[in-house]
Amino acid sequence: MLFDTDIFIWTQRGNIKAARLIEREDERLLSVQSYMELLQCAQNKKQHDYTKSFLKDFGFHVIPFSENIGHRAAVYIEEYSLSHGLRAGDAIIAATATENNAKLCSSNVKHFKFIKELKLKSFKP
């Protein structure tokens, strides 16, 4: 399963349901977009190190950008930015999930629910 950035934020805030959700998954995937968002939110080097350590300790695989992910994200922006307000970061995360045939888990389902080919799992904190 590919986890949206918000799942990590819930976990870092101490949400037990989010932590258990991550623990239950055998395959833990993360878009490089989410990885960058997590590091960008860190306020200091200690938080950077904590984030990187968390991802390593729980066996997350960070999926890099690829030509196919970039192309699909651009198509999503063309199709959904005006009609649904899709933002570039969310388009990249959705494209990463779709291109890797992975289910995307997010508590921000409204950001993704209109993308027909995306397999989406809703998380309710």
In words, what does this structure look like?
A three-stranded parallel sheet has the order 1-4-5. It contains six helices and five strands. It has one domain: 5'-nuclease (Rossmann fold, 3-Layer(aba) Sandwich). The protein has helices spanning 5-12, 16-24, 32-41, 45-57, 67-84, 88-99; strands at residues 2-3, 29-31, 61-63, 104-106, 120-122. With 125 residues, the chain is mainly alpha-helical.
Main traits of this protein?
5 strands, two-stranded parallel ribbon, mainly alpha, three-stranded parallel β-sheet, single chain, Rossmann fold, 11% strand, 125 residues, 6 helices
The best one-word shape is globular
Quick check: average pLDDT?
96
Structural class: mainly alpha
CATH fold-level label: Rossmann fold
Rg (CA only): 14 Å
Strand content: 5-15%
Strand order of the largest sheet: 1-4-5
| Poorly predicted tracts of residues | none
The N- to C-terminal Cα distance equals 18 Å
Number of folding domains? 1
CATH class: Alpha Beta
- CATH level-two architecture: 3-Layer(aba) Sandwich
Oligomer: single chain
Give the count of helical stretches: 6
Please name the fourth-level CATH homologous superfamily: 5'-nuclease
The run of helices and strands is: EHHEHHEHHEE
Main beta sheet: 3 strands, parallel
* Tally of strands: 5
